[in-house]
Each structure stands twice: as C-alpha cells, then as structure tokens.
Specification:
Length: 170
C-alpha cells in the first residue's frame, strides 16, 4: 500500500481536471475518477511512503502549512512507466521550495519517504490515469491537450492512504 501527503486544488481547477477524468472515461481510458473507491480528488502528492501517520506528519510540519497557498499553472502532459498519464504544473521556485521544506521536516522527524519524491527527483504532477491502454494513448493525450493550460491554487492538504481507506485533512 502507498500513502501520500496530497495537496488539493481550488474548486474551478478541480472541476476542470474532473472533466478531463470524465472525458478519458468516455474514451475508454480508466481515470482516477473510478479508481478503487471513487473518492480520489485531483491533487499533487508532495511525498509518498509505504504508510504515513497523519499525527506524525502534522507534528513534523508544526508551523509549516502543508497547503501553502501556491499558484500553479498546469502546462504540459507527462507519462511515467506503466502508461501513467499526468498533467504537470510549471515547477516554480515557490513550489520547489515548499516541497523541499516539507520533505526536510518529514525526513528530520524520521518519517521514511519514497526516494522518487525527494528534492531533485520529484516530478510534480496530477495523475489522470494509472494505466492508459496502448491503443488509446494518442486519444488520451489529445483530450488532455485540449484543456491546457489549467491555472490552480493550492487550497488544502491531507494524508491519504486510498488502499486502506484512510484520509486525514491537515
């Protein structure tokens, strides 16, 4: 199982990304909309770990807001191995600095984090689909290109473990 510290987007941006999820589903591309329990929200994961204790995360971040009011501009589409499709925000200095500060606090508190989410390795992204069928990849990318750019503001955060059904707002 995997847990994450997720950053959530303002309602307008969330609605636009949910519309992308709907368009992907209509094109027979499974999206996060219907993955597992159907409770996913459009988000950026700041850190990922096998498990995260929300109280430990909140304690480590004492005085540092998890959900800093950052402005984002989703400007491109990316793909990770396994045909994971995502939207990428322009990596602003403010976003990268916030990520580094959160990562440093959690690491200093002894919270084990996935090294792919360490500063210098982390790729900020909002996942759209965990496994795009090969035959649908071109269609999925075209659907995404039609909505860019998407301007967004970070408005909330939570420790989420969707596999275990855990969700703790910070």
């Amino acid at each position: 199982m995997v847990a994450a510290l997720e950053l959530y987007l303002d309602p307008v941006a969330e609605k636009r990304i949910r519309a992308v999820w709907d368009a992907l589903e209509a094109a027979e591309v499974p999206s996060l909309r219907d993955l597992t329990h159907r409770k996913h929200r459009p988000h950026l994961s700041l850190v990922v770990a096998e498990a995260l204790d929300a109280r430990a995360v909140a304690g480590a971040l004492d005085g540092l807001p998890a959900a800093a009011p950052l402005e984002l501009s989703f400007q491109y589409i990316g793909q990770f191995l396994g045909r994971v499709l995502w939207l990428g925000p322009a990596p602003t200095a403010a976003l990268l600095e916030h990520h580094a500060a959160v990562h440093a606090r959690l690491t200093a508190a002894g919270i084990g984090l996935d090294p792919l989410y360490a500063p210098g390795s982390w790729v900020p992204h909002c996942t759209l689909s965990m496994r795009v069928p090969r035959a649908k990849l071109g269609d999925a990318i075209r659907l995404c290109l039609d909505v860019l750019p998407i301007e967004a503001t970070i408005t909330g955060a939570a420790v989420a473990d969707h596999g275990r059904g855990l969700y703790d707002p910070l």
